[in-house]
Design a protein that fits this description.
The protein is an all-alpha fold. The chain is about 80% helix and about 0% strand. The radius of gyration is 24 Å and the shape is globular. The N and C termini lie far apart (about 85 Å).
């Protein structure tokens, strides 16, 4: 009996050691995968603050919490199981799905670029909603839908990076990446949207230094929010274009990636210092150009379809 108990304890210890090793491996893989998804994370953090604009400051953090909970549900209850099923039964579909998401990001970035240069804006139906509770629910629902797309990209990028790992490790990596990114993104978003309130509080204290800091925060937040919107647009184009370029390379269409790579290396070789930084910037710029081209075409198609749908029927041709 004692020997049997000792054997059982040995088995338990071995299982625990194996689990710890798997968790260490998963944590390392999650860090690597999360780094590759950084561009989408920047986009996610830049997009979310607009969903609390126009609402009561007292509701900002509760709304962000609602969106964060929706994001966790998206990642753990929808995307995680779907990703594992995909990895087990249709791994060939990962790259096409990534490219579809990349095309969507490029489209969204191109739409924002068109708006920035005075083009047509997205429909702003939420501005017509008079009831604050209805407006809040509409914005939360819209944010969670957008989060689903961005989270799908994050999870797909993470999955592609650990596709050769055991299914348990894949699941752990996706869960770690999903939870860590959600906590990071919505923690930063919460800080951003309350920064002006923090500034107002500091502006009322007696300390001249803190009062000046508070006034600076209040005056600076519109600039910060504008910069975040620009960063979000750039991230959409860069990440979306990069995914499309890499996906095309995977399918044997090499010249976009090769052209960008050769241009980046050539520019870096001309500089006595800062070569790696220049190479990265040229690579990102090349991916963004691809994103603008693809996203611009998609935006034109979508706008044309919208105009055709809104076009009234000629007299005598419709009912």
């Amino acid at each position: 009996m004692p020997s049997g108990l000792a054997a059982l304890l040995d088995d338990v210890a071995a299982i625990a050691k194996l689990a710890a090793t798997s968790l260490d491996d998963a944590s390392a893989a999650a860090g690597k995968a999360g780094t590759k998804a950084a561009g989408v994370v920047v986009d996610d953090a830049a997009v979310t603050p607009r969903y609390v604009t126009g609402l009561s400051p007292a509701r900002e953090l509760p709304i962000i919490w609602k969106i964060a909970k929706g994001s966790i549900r998206n990642k753990l209850l929808i995307l995680l199981p779907a990703a594992l099923i995909l990895s087990a039964f249709a791994p060939w579909a990962i790259t096409p799905i990534l490219m579809l998401g990349g095309a969507y990001l490029a489209f969204e970035g191109a739409e924002k670029l068109i708006e920035a240069f005075g083009g047509s804006h997205h429909a702003k139906a939420d501005e017509d909603v008079g009831d604050p509770a209805t407006l809040e629910e509409t914005k939360v629902a819209g944010a969670i839908r957008t989060d689903l797309i961005l989270s799908a990209e994050i999870m797909a990028i993470a999955l592609a990076d650990v596709a050769d790992q055991p299914i348990v490790t894949q699941g752990l990596v996706l869960a770690i990446v999903g939870l860590a990114i959600t906590a990071g993104v919505y923690g930063v978003v919460g800080l951003i949207v309350k920064m002006d309130d923090i500034g107002l509080h500091l502006a009322r204290v007696k300390s001249a230094v803190l009062k000046g800091l508070g006034r600076g925060l209040v005056k600076g937040m519109p600039i910060v929010m504008s910069a975040i919107a620009t960063i979000g647009m750039a991230a959409m184009l860069w990440v979306g274009g990069g995914i499309l370029v890499h996906g095309a390379h995977t399918f044997g269409f090499d010249w976009p990636e090769d052209t960008i790579h050769h241009a980046a290396v050539a520019v870096a070789s001309l500089l006595p210092v800062g070569g790696p930084v220049a190479e990265w910037l040229i690579t990102a710029l090349g991916a963004a150009i691809v994103g603008i081209l693809v996203g611009g075409v998609l935006a034109l198609i979508v706008h044309q379809i919208g105009r055709l749908r809104r076009k009234p029927a000629a007299p005598g041709t419709g009912h």
